[in-house]
Amino acid sequence: MDLLAVSGSPSSPSKTVLALDVASRRAAEHDDVHVDLLDLREQELVFSDGRDPADYTGTTRDAIDRVVAADALLVGTPMYRGGYTGRLKNLFDVLPNDALAGKPVGLVATGGTDHHYLALEHELKPLIGFFRAWAVPGAVYANNTHFSEGELVDDGVRARLRDLADAVVGFARGMPAGAGAAAPDIPRKSATEA
Ligand SMILES: Cc1cc2nc3c(=O)[nH]c(=O)nc-3n(C[C@H](O)[C@H](O)[C@H](O)COP(=O)(O)O)c2cc1C
C-alpha cells in the first residue's frame, strides 16, 4: 500500500511536517505500507489556471501523479486565517476530480492556538468530500504549546496521530471496490482551447 503524506505548510521548519512525521512513522510500521511525503514548501507547483489537469507538466505533474498513485493519504496543514493554506488549496485545484475517489484520508492541522480546531470539520472535510474520498474519523489538531525545541512533545497528540495512522491503514485495507462512486463530469479547457 502506498500512503502519501501531504504537507501544505510553506514554512521551514514546519510543525505540520513534524506532526505528519509521527503519523507517517506509525503507518510505516504496518506490513507492506510504503510512506512518502509530498512537502509543498519544496515543490514549486504552478498556480492553477483552470486548464485540464492532464496538461500540467514538470513539478506540478509530478505532484498530481503522486496523489493519483496513492492508495491512502495523510493531509496536513497549518491554520492560515482560520483555514488551510493557499498552497494546499492550489494542489487540490490542479488535481483531476477523481484523484482521491474512494481513498481514505487522515487529516492533521496545526495552529497557533485551539481557536481554529473546527476548521478540520468546516474547511477540510468538505474539501475531502468534494473529491469523494473518506475523511477518516480521528482528525488531529495540534497547537503551538504541543511543540518544543523542534519536536512534537505532547504525548496525547502523538498518541492521536498514531491512532489516526492506524485508522487510515485499516480503512485502506478494508475499502470495498467502487467505494468512490462516479462523479458527474466537469468539463475543463484543454491547453490548446481558448
Ligand atoms: C499567515 C499566517 C496565518 C496564520 N493564521 C492562523 C490562524 O488563523 N489560526 C491559528 O491558530 N494559527 C494561525 N497561524 C499560526 C500557524 O498556523 C501555526 O504556527 C502553525 O503551527 C504553523 O505550522 P507550520 O510550522 O507547519 O507552518 C498563522 C500563521 C501564519 C504565518
Automatic annotation (TrEMBL):
Keyword terms: Flavoprotein, FMN, Oxidoreductase
Keyword rRNA processing in record: no
Signal peptide limits: none
Chain ranges of the NADPH-dependent FMN reductase-like domain: 1-144
InterPro entries: Flavoprotein-like_sf, FMN_Rdtase-like_dom, NAD(P)H-dep_FMN_reductase
Tree of life domain: Bacteria
Protein name from the UniProt record: NAD(P)H-dependent oxidoreductase
